[in-house]
Amino acid sequence: MKTKRILLIGTALTTLVAAGVVGRSTAQDATQFEAGHIEALPGEDWDDIARRLSPSGVTRAQLDAFGDAIRVANGSPRSPRAGQILHYDPADIPTPTTATTATPTTAAPTTAAPTTAAPTTAAPTTAAPTTAAPTTAAPTTAAPTTAPPATAPGGRAPQFFEDFAQESGVQRFDRMVHHRNLALGGGGHDFDETWSGDHNLQCEGPTTQRIVRPSRDGTDPEAFWWCAPGNDPAKGHFMTSMGDIDGFTVVAFSPRQTMQDVTSVCWDVNLTDLGARKWFEVTIVPEQAFQANRRSLAYTHPTFRQPSVNEFPAGSFSFVFFNHDVILYNGTDRVYAESGSGFGTNDKARRYKHCLVDNGDGTVTATQERNNGTHTARARGSFPDGPARVIFTDQTYHPDKDGTPQGLTWHWDNIEIR
Q: What structural domains and CATH numbers belong to the chain?
């Protein structure tokens, strides 16, 4: 009888939390381990939550139906609130269909003619479209599900690697949108303005466009999406985008794990000229500062320090690509900056490799691939010792003020942390 009473109390508290009556800290102990409850993460929509709860192999239709069921169970709001404890019926969790687990014999046609290629080497079907006919080439180029070689920058094996060959890779990241004006409550935020993003809804080439819409609660889940043009997993990658709907906006994502003694961070991203009012940053933040800032992903460099947005904390190291120039910060100290000699292109398709490497001698080396080679910068500084978070941000400051760039999109791929 005592156990039953405790469960009833936990359920009642969960109901109050979902209704916004009781704060999450009040009911956390009662809900954290109960089946049928889950906490909404920043930037998630109902489909994201359904995907997080579902096993791999379920269909899009199953995820849509499950997402709708969760939404209805929580009063049918347009989007969940970050930190909200949500109800769901475990019986509604979809089970994978047999159609999604392709057998080796059905995979063979996609790897070219020889029928002997199907057995054990045919699994990375994503490699075939990007390589020539010989079936022996596939194993050596099949990067999607494997970590990069140990000879990559940083020396040791990766702590984290994601190539976005599958849409499920997106779920390995926390996502957040922070609007300055909306956070300050003083107006100046447009809930109805749409903007253009790269890749249409059929995920065709990056010059095709989609209409991106803000959400009424300001979390803007449409600011993130995944595409694999031609349904080729080798081309799968992750997009962030933001239009001119608030004075200053940070669209951020970060691996859902704490890194330890980071030695290098590498990523691929386009370097499309999107104007001087849209840029990206990568920041390695000490775990202690991350927790002190309430796990926020909203950071920006000192030139654009904004109310409600965190400055780079002590012990952090940051790469900023601003107005075509590479700028490096150790904490809030600018330790390297190009001055108008940087790089931009009209190409939306190519994603350029970037790396930050802690040399272990009080200096950090930054590299950026460009059309004419690799730009290298070495500056004083170091990464945080011990636990840290790696945060990627897409930042926007009235991007339409100097003319509207088409697409307003950064394309991310091959994120590797050592």
A: 2-92 (no CATH), 160-417 (2.60.120.200)
Tokens of 7: 């469960």
Contacts 24+ apart (CB under 8 A), 207-216: 207/348, 209/406, 209/407, 212/241, 212/243, 214/190, 214/243, 214/245, 215/45, 215/78, 215/79, 216/78, 216/79, 216/191
- What is the C-alpha separation between 303 and 286, in angstroms, rounded? 21
Please give the model's pTM, rounded to 2 decimal places. Answer: 0.66
- Per the listing, tokens 């180029």 go with 141
CA–CA distance, 251 with 274 (Å, rounded to integer): 15
Q: Which amino acid is at 247?
A: G
pLDDT band of residue 315 (cuts 50, 70, 90) is: very high
Q: Cβ(154)–Cβ(357) under 8 Å?
A: yes
Q: CB–CB of 418/158 below 8 Å?
A: yes
Q: At what angle do helices 24-31 and 2-18 cross, to 10 degrees?
A: 140
> What's the CA gap between 199 and 187, in Å, rounded?
31
Q: Is the dihedral of CA 153, 156, 159, 162 positive or negative?
A: positive
| DSSP symbols for 190-252 | -SS--EEEES-TT---TTSEEEE---TTS--GGGEEEE-GGG-GGG-EEEEE--SSSSSEEEE
Residue type, 346: N
Q: For residue 231, which phi and psi values (nearest 5 degrees)?
A: 55, 30
Count the helix, strand and coil residues of the chain and give each as a percent rounded to the nearest 5.
25, 30, 45
pLDDT tens-digit readout, 214-235: 999 999 999 999 999 999 999 9
